[in-house]
Specification:
4 helices; repressor; CopG family transcriptional regulator; toxin-antitoxin system; transcription; Ribbon_hlx_hlx
C-alpha cells in the first residue's frame, strides 16, 4: 500500500442544535437515507444551485444579438400553459381533480 495515497473522501464536522439534527434525521428517514447521505446530497445540491446562479455565459456578438432579438420579439403562446392557467386552482370553486 502506498504511504502517500490520495484520500478520496474528506470528513466535514458540524455542530448543530438538537432540533436541527432531529429534523434532518426525520427527513433522512422518510427518504430512506442515512443522515450523512441526506446532508451530503442537500449540501451538494445547494452548492450546485449557487454555482449555476453565478455562471458566466459567453457568446459571440452575433449570438448575443440573436438572443436579444428572441427576447424582444413577440411572445408565442404555449397551448399547454394557456390551458393550465385557465383551470381553477384546487382551492377555487369549479375545481375537478383529474384521475
Amino acid at each position: 500500500m502506498a504511504a502517500n495515497a490520495e484520500r478520496k473522501e474528506h470528513p466535514i464536522s458540524m455542530r448543530l442544535p438538537e432540533a436541527d439534527i432531529a429534523m434532518i434525521d426525520r427527513a433522512a428517514g422518510l427518504r430512506g437515507r442515512s443522515r450523512t447521505d441526506f446532508v451530503r446530497e442537500a449540501a451538494v445540491r445547494a452548492a450546485e444551485d449557487v454555482l449555476m446562479e453565478n455562471r458566466l455565459i459567453r457568446m459571440s456578438p452575433e449570438g448575443f444579438a440573436d438572443f436579444m432579438a428572441a427576447l424582444s420579439g413577440p411572445a408565442t403562446a404555449v397551448p399547454e400553459m394557456v390551458d393550465c392557467a385557465k383551470r381553477p386552482a384546487p382551492w377555487e370553486p369549479g375545481y375537478v381533480a383529474k384521475r
